[in-house]
Amino acid sequence: MGKKKLVSLAFLMLLLLSTALYGCSGGDSESGGEGGESESGGEKVLIFGRGGDSVSLDPITVTDGESFKVTKNIFDTLINFGEQDTEIEPALASEWEAAEDGLTYTFQLQEGVTFHDGTDFNAEAVVANFERWAAGDADQFPYYKSMFGGFGDEEEHVIESVEATGDYEVVIKLKRPQAPFLKNLAMSPFGIASPTAFEEAGESFGDQPVGTGPFKFVEWQRNDTVTIEKFDDYWVDGEPKLDQVVFRAIPDNSARLNALLSGEIDLADGITPSDSETIENDENLQLFERPSMNVGYLGLTTTREPFDDPKVRQAMNHAIDRQAIVDSFFEGRAEVAKNPMPPVISGYNDSIEGYEYDPEKAKELLAEAGLEDGFTMELWAMPVPRPYMPDGQKVAEAIQSDLAEVGITAEIVSYEWATYLEKAAAGEADAFLLGWTGDNGDADNFLYVLLDQDNIGSNNYTYYENQDLHDILIEAQTEVDEDARNELYMQAQEIIHEDAPWVPLAHSTPLLAGGTNVIDFKAHPTGSDKLASVDME
Amino acid sequence: MLHYIGQRLLQLIPVLLGMTFIVFMIIRAIPGDPAQVILGQQASEEAIKALRTSLGLDNPWYIQYFDYLKGLVTGDMGDSLRTRSPVSEEIWPYLAATFELSLFAIIIAVVIGINAGIISAWFQNSWFDYTAMVLALIGVSMPIFWLGLMNQWIFSIELGILPTTGRENVRDPINNITNFYVLDTIIQGDFNQLATVLKHLVLPGTALATIPMAIIARMTRSSMLEVMRSDYVRTARAKGVKMFWVVYKHALKNAIIPVLTIIGLQMGLLLGGAILTETIFGWPGIGRYIYEAIGFRDYPVIQSGILVVAFIFVMINLFVDLLYGLVDPRIKYD
Questions:
Q1: pTM beyond 0.80, yes or no
Q2: Which superfamily is assigned to B91-325 in CATH?
Q3: Which residue in B has a C-alpha nearest to residue A30's C-alpha?
Q4: What percent of chain A is helix, strand and coil (3-state, nearest 5)?
Q5: Which residues of B fall within a CB distance of 8 Å from A63?
Q6: In this complex, do B42 and A143 lie within 8 Å of one another by their Cβ atoms?
Q7: Which of A175, A342, B23, B148 satisfies CB 3.0 to 4.6 Å to B280 for a cystine?
C-alpha cells in the first residue's frame, strides 16, 4: 500500500472528475453562459424574469397579477390606463361620451383593428365579449362580479344592456351610476377577446388566448416560460418594437437576481430593497421603480379586547415608529403612510396629520383606557414577502420592541400564508400585518374594500364597523361629480383616522431591474406592464 | 421470480390506498380554503361560495374521498383546482423534468460516492480517507440553498461558464418531443443543444447530488471496511491477486448490497425532495408543482402528485430488491 500509488490514484480520480465536468460544461470554448451571446438573427427578444407562473391566460377568469402581466400584452381593453398612472386614456375605444345622469355611455371604436386570428374587431365583437361575461357566474369570472356587481338579470348587476348601435359604436346602459365605471373597463381582466376564438375554444381559451394586443401567444410551458411574439398587424403604428417576449418563472429572489447578473434574463421583477444598491453599482444594470399604489398596515381587530377601545388603537399608532421601519426594512424606498390609501389616488386627504411617534402620548392614552400597566397581545407576522411588506418578520420585531417601550408585551406568531389569511379573516388575530395593492386606482378600491362593514369576513380583517363611514362610502360609489366624490372620500379618511382601526405603515415602491440595453420600460402601478413601446439595443 | 414480483405488486395496493387516505385527511385538516386562496384577497363572498360548490368542496369528506378513488380506478387523477386541467396531463412534463435532473444527480452521486468510499476504505486512516470523510460530513449537513446560490455566483456570474437557472437557453429553445431534453436533443442529433442542456444540468445536478453522494460514500466505506476484514479477502491477497482487483472485484461485490439499498432510497427521495433545488434553479419539476399546490390548497394536485411520487418510490425499491439477485446469486426470490 505504497504512498506513491495512493497519490497517483488520487490524481487519476481528480483528472477523471475534471474531464467529466469539463465535458459537461460544453465543447464550445466561448462563454458558456447565455449572457454574452448575441441574439440569433438580430431578433429582439426580451426575457422577463418573475416570481411565479400565470394561472390562466384568459384574463376574465383570473385574479392574480402574474396572469395579467402576460395578458396585458395579448389583449387590449376599451380604455387604457396612463403610461404610469391610472388616469384613463383611449384604447380600443377612441372616444366616449357619458350622459349627464351617468347612466348611458356611448363608445366610438377604433377602426381597422383585427384580432390575431384575423377576426375583425367591431361593435359586434365588443357586445359578444360583454355577453360572454354577463352569462357567467362569480366562480368563472370573479372580477366581473367584484367590479360590476353581478351577472345577467341579477339586481346587483350594474350593467343594464350593451348594444351595437353602428359598426363601430357601442352603447352601454347602467342601472345606476357607477363612478369608477370607466376605470373598471381599463382593468386587465376586461381585455377584449376574439369572439370566434373563445366560442371555438370554450373552457380551454386560457391555453390559446387570442386578442388584438401588440403580441400574440406562442407557447406556454407551465411553471417555466410563456412566450409571446410580435403581432405584425398591430393597430398602433410602429408598435410593438420587440420581436418576442419570454416570461420566465424563477421563484427565488436571489436566484432571479443571479440570472439577471449573468445576463440570462433582461428584466427582473421583485427586486428586494436590500439588493437595490448592488444594481445601482453595476454599470450594466438599471433600476426601475414601480409607482406606488399600495399600502402596508398593522390591522387591529376591533372586536378583540383591548382593541375594541379606540384609545388603545390610537395609542398603538403613537407607539410605533414608522419612519424607522421605512428606513430599515424598505431601505427608504417607501413613503410613511398616514391614510389607508396612497397619495396618488384621487381623493387622498393630505390635510390629515398622521399620528406622530410619541411613546409618552401612547402611555397617556393607555392610562386613560385604564391600561397603565400595559397588556399582552399576539402580533401576527406575514410569512411571505410582498411588495408592500418585504419582510414581515423583521417589521414585526421592530414593532414588538416599540411596543415594549410603552409597556405592551407583544408575542410574534406566524402561520403559513393560506392559513394566516383564513384565521385573520375569521377575526382570530389581535393585531396582524397585511397590505393591499390597488386594482384600478380608485379610492373605493381601498376604503370600501378594506374598511367598510360590508366587507367584514373578507377584506375588512379588522371587523371595523362605522355606520357614518358606510353611508359616505356608499354615497360615493354612485356620485358622478368628481369633486363632490373626492370630498366624500376626504371625510371618510377623517373618520378612519379618528377611529384608527389600522396603524398604516408604508406605501412602498416596488422595484424591478433590467439590463441597460432595455429601453423605454415603464413600470405601471397596477403591476401589469404593457411592453408595446419597449425596445432593446 | 415472477411470482415474487407479482406478490410485491399486490402488496403495493394497500400501501398506496393507505397513503391516499392519509394524504387526503392531512390536507383537509390544515386550515385554509382552496376557493379563497384560488380567488385571492380580492374575491367576494359569493364568488367563493360558488367556487366551493362547483369544486365539490361542499360534499362531506367521505363522498369526496370515494369520488376521488373512483376516479383513480378509471385513471382519472382529478382536475387541478387552480388551472382546471386534468392532473394526469399536467403532471407529465414536471415528472420528466424532475426525473432527468434526479437521474443526472444520482449518477454523479453514485460514481463519485462509491469510488470515494472504496478508496477511503482501501487506504483507511490515510489523508485521503480523512479528507473524504470530512467532506462527506460537510456534504450531509450542507444547506443546499446556500450551496446553490454560491455555485451560481461562482460559475455563472464570476466565471461565466454555466447558466444559473432553467433547463434550456430560452433565447434558443429546443424542440420538445418527450420532455426529457437530453433524450430530445439526441433524437434530433443536435449536439450543440445537447451540450446546452447538459450545461443547464450541471449546477442543479451537483447541488442535488451533494447529500446522496456524501451518504453513499460513508455507507460504501463502512460496508467495504467490514468486507475487507473477511477471510476470503485475505485468501485472495495471499494468492497474490493484485490489490486493485481484490478491492474492486472481490470485496466490492459483497459490500455493494447495503449501498444499493441506500441508492434506491436516495433516488426516491430526490424525486420528491428536490423542492429546494428546483426553486433555486428555476427548474419546473414535480417538487415545486406539489409545493405550490400546497400553497394554493389544490387538493387533487397534492393528492395525485404525492401518489405518483410514492408509486415511483416503491417501484424503484422493488427494482433495487431485484438487483440484489443479480449482484449476489445467493439471494433467491420465492
A1: yes
A2: MetI-like (1.10.3720.10)
A3: B161
A4: 35, 20, 45
A5: 39-40, 42-43
A6: yes
A7: B148
